[in-house]
Structures are given as C-alpha cells and as structure tokens.
Amino acid sequence: MPTPQWPVTLVEDDIRLRPLRTRDARTWREVRRRNADYLKPWEATMPEEGRESGERAPTFAGMVRRSRSEARAGRLLPWAIEYEGRFVGQMTVGGIALGSLRSAYIGYWIDEAVSGRGITTMAVAMASDFCFADLLLHRLEINIRPENLASRAVAEKVGYVVEGSRPDYLHIDGAWRDHLTYVLFRGQVLPNAVSRIRSAQPSADFLL
Question: Structural domain tally of the chain?
C-alpha cells in the first residue's frame, strides 16, 4: 500500500486539520501573542548548549518551508488546527519512521479561547487514526509534562496510556523537564479513535 502523499487534510464536523501555510503567519503570530502566558509553561525553549553553538529559532516562514520539505519526504505531518473555519492551533506528527519501527510522536497546542470544547481531543484522535489507517504505523507516542493535567487528559480520552517517564527529556520554559510518555498501538482502540470520542458521554472532564 503506497504512503499517502502530502498535502493531507482531515475533517470531522467543525474541526479541520490542514497543512500549515506561509500565509498563516499573521494569524499564527496573533494567536501566539494572545496565548503567550497560557502556553509558556509548556513551550520548548533553546538550552544553553544550543545558544553556545549558535542555533537560532527559525522564522515562521522558515519553519513552514522546512516542515513542508519534511512532510514531502514522509517524515512529518505539520497541520494547522481549524475550528469553524478559524485557525486555533497546531498539530504535528513528527519523527515518522517506517520499516521495522513504524512509529511517530504527536505534539500540539491550542488557543485558550476555544479550550474546553473537545477540539484538541478530537484533533489528536483524527491524527492518530490517519497514522494507523493510512500510514500503517504501529506505535504513536505523546510526551507530556506531569504537571500538564489538561494535556494528559486529552491523551487518556483518546486511549493513550502511560508507558513510562523520561527525566530531563525536553528543554521547556527555560529548563530541562521530566515528561511522561503516553503510547497507543495500532488496533488498541477499535474501531478507531474518532469513534471512541464520538461514543463517549459528554462530561466536564471530556471537554478539553
């Protein structure tokens, strides 16, 4: 079965995952500006080692160009999250490996203004289903700081379970931070993750 070629767009009701574009720059910056304090505790930062070696964070246009190239090579899925036709965040599937490993990791962020509506949960379910059904991956992981209860709840609602911990795993908010590794395997949630979310009874702890 051939690997689906980028670009790929996924739609479930009012939620849409579509390729991140250079023309998203203005909206992306505005949403990120409004959410600076909200996202800061969970944002990746440049460690001292990177600064010493001269590394710099890419511009938005540079990030999109590099992501597009990686996507065409089959190593990345760089999606914008839209809700009711409006840009509200990002969903990235990275580290895609085929062959005998067949795995990837998922990362995401969402606009605080639309949090609590189940958007992130459904977006993770959509991305997970695509990776299992279309890319035929075997394993997906989401690495989350133990303190990020909202993100942990998202992973758990989709069906991910804690596999273990990774001390000092990523440089977040100015320091190396411990993370929990949540995993989901192909065929573990039947018929698929989106169906699992749709069948869940609405409740306050679901709306994340």
Answer: 1
